[in-house]
Amino acid sequence: MKPLVASMFAAGIALGVQAAQGGETIAVLDLRSRSHPVVAAEVSDRVRETVRRLLPDARIVDRESDGDFVLSGKVSHGGLGYRAWLELRDRNGDMLQKASATASTRRELVEAVEGAAADLVRSQQEASGALAARAAALPAVPAPSEPAQDALNLDADSGVLVAYDRARRIEVHGRESPEDAAAAWRRVADMPGQNAFREMAISRSQQWEAYAAGRRAVDAQLARDTARLRRVLPLGSVTDEAKIEMLVRFASLHGFEKVSPFVVLLPSAALRERAELSLDCEVKEAHACLQLARAADEAKDAKAAQELLDRACAAGAADACAEAGERWLSGDGRDPARALAALQRGCDSSNAAACVRLARIYEEGDGTAPNAKAGAEVREKACAAGDGKSCRRLAGTSDEPGRVADLLRKGCDGGDGVSCALASREPAIVQRQLQEAAAGAARSTPVARPAKATETAPAKPPLSLSLSARRAASRRPLCKALSSAPPLEDAMTRTATFVALLLVSTSALAWNRLEATRFATLPSDTAHPEGITADAAGNIYVADFDVDHPGPGVVVIFDHSGHVLREVRVAGSTNLLLGLDFTRCPATRGEMLVIDFGGQKVLSVNLSTGASTLFTDLGGGGPNALTFDALGNVYISDSGRGIIWKTLPCGGTAQAWVPTNPLLLPNGYPPFGANGLAFNKGYTALFVANTARDTIVKVPVLGGGAAAGTPVDFTNSINGADGLIIDEDDNLWVCANQADEIVVVNPAGRAIAKLGDFDGLSQDGAPVGLLFPASLVFHGDFVYVTNLSLDLRDFGLPPSVDSDWAAAVKRHTVARLPKHIPPIRGLR
Q1: Angle at the Cα of 794 (from 789 to 796), degrees rounded to 5?
Q2: What are the pLDDT digits (tens) for 601-636?
Q3: Residue 764 has pLDDT above 60, yes or no
Q4: Which of 143, 393, 525, 821 has the most CB atoms in a 10 Å sphere around its CB?
């Protein structure tokens, strides 16, 4: 997908317009053929002749590098005769038009190719020349005439005065009826006798005649463009991209309010949606430019995505400015000047990420001269925008203890754990130690011998404490370790010890849980997000298990910043949707598989329309989660019957790959058995969470997936093991829905991290942190988690420890944590 800019290809530089100007160069290349080069040469000559005849003013060349447009193709011969394919591309290689010809003999092929080449050129001329290159100029509306102050004293016929007065009254409506205004002033000018208004009336008549002529030209152009657009949009030979470009060009020429009736002429809902987004982007609707950028990323068109991000940035999307700036600093298209401009715009809009990246440019001299003063100023903006690490960095450069304390408080509020750990200490001591740490970082730091931590880790603060109180409780061991450290021999050793204590402080706190922050909020008409997946562009897809509303179920799509792109209502589904992911079936590529727990089936869903088809029907049980093997086969967990089902990539009848097994049955609470599932990197084992038993079950893979081995318990005591994914190191990341945390288990079954926690409800009634985390997905440097926030009493079950909290939730959320496993002592 290419960005739509003011000078549209379809209306400004395409064949039809350029031919009228006599300035285009077309490279007509020799058609390719391995087995029939002579036939290909003959056909190529006929194509050149045809193009010269249809475009007499064009310059025809035979080298691709010399052409504004390139016409190429190939010839083949098979059992049904000859066939030729022709393609017309622009200088960037983008496809404009295609045509083909078939024939049983060589002579027939030459004649058929002539017709195909003619159709190709005419079709492109029709598409490119459908709209005028520029809008007809409309003259300014003549200014109202000034009344003659001395009219009554003039020696003029009364008839002249009457005609003059009438002309002034008529020209009040001259914008709508310029011909009437011109005629009225002509009558004044033509009045006989003493006529002091004659010269003025002649001038006014000419002004209104010019305006009327301009109006007629504009109306005629609008009529021509309207007729041509209606004729071109249904053509199958015109590319979708050219159709969208023509619509945008029409809107820019004649007004965006006039283009809506033509959008409906586009043949598909997806194309109409793209057209609407393109039109919105043209009028600086930032969200539309962002969605187009994501689509360009998905189409692997980095250049178009970059330009669209720039346009979203210019339209006021600060997140887009940060992303655009980052992209301008990497890859083959690296442009530090454009990066600076984008990041500055984003930072001026108080985007923390843009400020941080801009500060690094000045601090590191990345594409510009190092500038410590500018870097510090931008760090101040980053801190004010909520970047906790920037606040801590500024604290390390301050000479004022009061400012150090204030910056550390801001850093802690911005989510920086080290700032939280330091905020309770004496500001003067922290100030000195931060400065020494900063100075030591500039030198090679010697091996530190930190003081032995003799304190035991404190008990986890109760949930009733506020977040700030819990932070204060959790940072006491670090403060005590710092205050009880033995005398240090010199400044370098003191600095090294301080830095080492910062690095190991997370170990002293037992699990360094990191913090789960709100990534996105579901629309108010949806609730209880459960299944989750992501696409390559970073858009997040969430299925709702909405016990609060009737069906159909909804898939909510968020962009990478957490803004709602759209809601997809899944036709033919119940309100209880669970696992989802993009299909691997070639015939339905782009659709999404969605588990309908209430319907006991899996649906294949068109994300543009919401239409669904049956992928597989399990005929009972409780389908919950799905995953794929290396061949695209689908594996589905059945929470009710303790089965792992398997289907082919395109669905059909499901086979019990793992028949009912006691390790997968719901023997416990909450009564959901086999749940989240994923293969390891080598596809040698399938790991399945059992929510009821708090276990992870390992199923060996035999014969490349042809059969399953005997399931065994892999690890235990993950409280409410739910969604499960596996990272590149074969670590299992598991949602513990009854403990409100993510447990990370290494390939040996050992817990190596516990991440996130529940910290009550926000003012808008949304979970703070994690509440009944259900499913998770990786994208980039983050792991995204759905907060199901499910009150199990809604299913007639006894309450859990979170039931009252879940019942009080008013807004439902998706959380996000860094995809990072914090260090822990004793783990090698």
Answers
A1: 135
A2: 999 999 999 999 999 999 999 999 999 999 999 999
A3: yes
A4: 393
